[in-house]
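Good morning,

Attaching, inline, the backbone tokens for the sequence recovery test we're adding to the shared suite. The designed sequence is right after.
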């Protein structure tokens, strides 16, 4: 069952909401920077989604619960570090969604349930392609995405992002 943390601010805003999927990849950093600068420029908000993988040892409930709690603490620490950065750059606390399940499915559910104006994803620029999430969203799941997507190459520097966002 998906879990979700309370948002830092109300779901509805006057400006646009730029949703970034949080993970531990290097390409996240340029994507988050882009979203923060776009939110600042448009008087909008950054929203952040982190999806924890479900515990695999559910037949041992106490072990599964302990593992889930450890993963949640790690997820919260990661998300809060990025939330602090988002606040510093955009000037507003981001909306935070913390869920458990399949990353692609939880993202698609969130896009159906919540107000999002732009989905911002960081793309791997190496030989392996942009990443499984982008590949899926640009392929078989494209029909389920009803918001514009900004795909930010993970190789962009902070200055290049500032140039693109006119900051």
């Amino acid at each position: 069952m998906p879990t979700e943390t309370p948002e830092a601010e109300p779901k509805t805003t006057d400006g646009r909401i730029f949703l970034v999927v949080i993970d531990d990849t290097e390409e996240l950093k340029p994507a988050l920077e882009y979203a923060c600068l776009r939110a600042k420029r448009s008087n909008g908000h950054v929203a952040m989604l982190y999806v924890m993988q479900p515990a695999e040892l559910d037949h041992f409930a106490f072990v599964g619960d302990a593992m889930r709690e450890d993963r949640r603490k790690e997820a919260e620490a990661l998300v809060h570090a990025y939330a602090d950065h988002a606040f510093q750059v955009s000037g507003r606390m981001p909306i935070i969604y913390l869920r458990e399940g399949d990353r692609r499915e939880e993202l698609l559910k969130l896009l159906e349930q919540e107000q999002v104006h732009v989905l911002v994803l960081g793309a791997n620029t190496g030989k392996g392609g942009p990443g499984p999430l982008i590949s899926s969203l640009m392929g078989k799941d494209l029909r389920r995405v009803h918001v514009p997507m900004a795909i930010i190459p993970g190789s962009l520097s902070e200055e290049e992002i500032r140039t693109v966002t006119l900051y």
